[in-house]
Amino acid sequence: MAWVAVSVTAGFVGLAVLAYCAFKVYLGVRRFGRELERTRSRLAPKQSALRDELSRLEGSRAPQAREDGVRSS
Prior knowledge:
This is DUF4229 domain-containing protein. Keywords: Membrane, Transmembrane, Transmembrane helix. By secondary structure, the chain is mostly helical. The chain has one helix spanning about 1-60. It is elongated and about 90 Å long.
């Protein structure tokens, strides 16, 4: 009968280890989310400036006549 108590105890210890690991993963994901948000806020002005520059360049580009496209032989 002692083996029943040992197996139940081992099961609870295993669940405790899994709960600890899950909590550590949860904390890591939260920390990673904060880091992503901070990086996004730091890059937003630069991304906006690049987007404005791209639209300015596209607006100043001379339109080209359409041809038949690329032909392969």
